[in-house]
Design a protein that fits this description.
This protein is of the alpha/beta class. 38% of the residues lie in helices and 19% in strands. The longest helix is centred in the N-terminal third of the chain and has 21 residues. The protein binds nicotinamide-adenine-dinucleotide. It comes from Candidatus Colwellbacteria bacterium CG10_big_fil_rev_8_21_14_0_10_42_22. Belongs to the NAD(P)-dependent epimerase/dehydratase family.
Length: 302
């Protein structure tokens, strides 16, 4: 099978590229390297340094490569930046997705797999643990851009012969996550603590997220090559982990003994959430295997 993986030089995308290549698939990567790194890139992948906003180049790649599957992970991912500068997030995440969809249907691509967000699409839900039937109410332009991306995909699927699988990820962490961005708290805390610097917690430490190890996310993306057709899946563990717990777990893994710094919660941030992934278990055959302590122990000291 030939797969285009966008964002394949980034954190999650590069792990998916490795898994697809290990499974014997041919992989084409589209990434503009705005955040991705060449060192993440699997040498067996065909690489195009192209921006997904550049429709002409995207069309040329699809015309040449004729992929069976598109796995779309390229995006602007920073929530706070999307509040400050919404138009760039909308251009990359909405117009970029449209360019890929249009090239996919012209070239008879069979399936479109999409990295959406569970953390930012549901807003601050009244129930803390949400399933896919909970009505999205994004609290940031980033969350909005992902909801619009989902709707574009469903539209193109209805109007064409294109199957889709949409993943609403919880907070993903693991090897190769950028420690310099504003997301990626495990990577950020780990690096600071290894350097002896106390990390900053935004809020009082009680804000919660649902954390999933990247290896588990890769498994969902492998399953999605064949299963889960035309469905939306939460990818989470259904377990709330507070910022203070993240701090303590990483501190224990790297032997850090100081206290954190505290600053006010940033605009657009959800206060508490965890994702119910029962549908992924029943219809995709996916279950997370690594708990937070195990996952942090794998990555924090590197
Ligand atoms: P990342 O920044 O490491 O990866 C994104 C990749 O996309 C990077 O390699 C970047 O260079 C590339 N990219 C960005 N803009 C581009 C453009 N205009 N054209 C081409 N390439 C571009 O981020 P990640 O954490 O690996 O996230 C991957 C996907 O998963 C994103 O779509 C993100 O919204 C989604 N997601 C991530 C999380 C998480 O916790 N990390 C949670 C929910 C959803």
């Amino acid at each position: 099978m030939k797969t285009v993986v966008t964002g394949g030089a980034g954190f999650i995308g590069s792990h998916i590229v490795d898994a697809y290549i290990n499974e014997g698939h041919e992989v084409v990567v589209i990434d503009n390297l705005s955040k991705g790194k060449l060192e993440n890139l699997n040498p067996k992948a065909q690489f195009y340094k192209v921006d997904v906003r550049d429709k002409e180049s995207v069309d040329k790649i699809f015309d040449k490569e004729k992929p069976d599957v598109v796995n779309h992970h390229a995006a602007m991912i920073e929530v706070a930046k999307s509040v400050r500068e919404p138009s760039e997030t909308i251009e990359v995440n909405v117009v970029g997705t449209m360019n890929l969809l249009s090239a996919a249907v012209i070239n008879n691509t069979k399936r479109f797999i999409f990295a959406s967000t569970g953390g930012a699409i549901y807003g601050s839900p009244e129930e803390v643990r949400v399933d896919e039937s909970y009505e999205p109410a994004p609290s940031s332009p980033y969350g909005l851009s992902k909801l619009l991306g989902e709707e574009e995909i469903r539209h193109y699927s209805r109007e064409n012969n294109l199957e889709y699988v949409i993943f609403r990820y919880a907070n993903i962490y693991g090897e190769r996550q950028d420690s310099k961005g504003e997301a990626g708290v495990v990577a950020i805390f780990s690096e600071l603590m290894r350097e002896g610097e106390p990390p900053t917690i935004f809020g009082d430490g009680n804000k919660t997220r649902d954390y999933v190890y990247v290896g588990d996310v890769v498994e969902a993306n492998v399953l999605a090559l064949q299963n889960g057709t035309n469905n939306i899946f939460n990818i989470g563990r259904g377990v709330e982990v507070s910022d203070s717990q993240v701090f303590e777990t990483v501190a224990k893994a790297v032997n850090f003994n100081e206290k954190p710094k505290f600053e006010p919660v940033r605009s657009g941030e959800v206060l508490r959430i965890s994702l119910d992934a029962k549908r992924a278990k029943e219809e995709l055959g996916w279950e997370p295997k690594i708990n937070f302590e195990e996952g942090v122990a794998k990555v924090a000291s590197k």
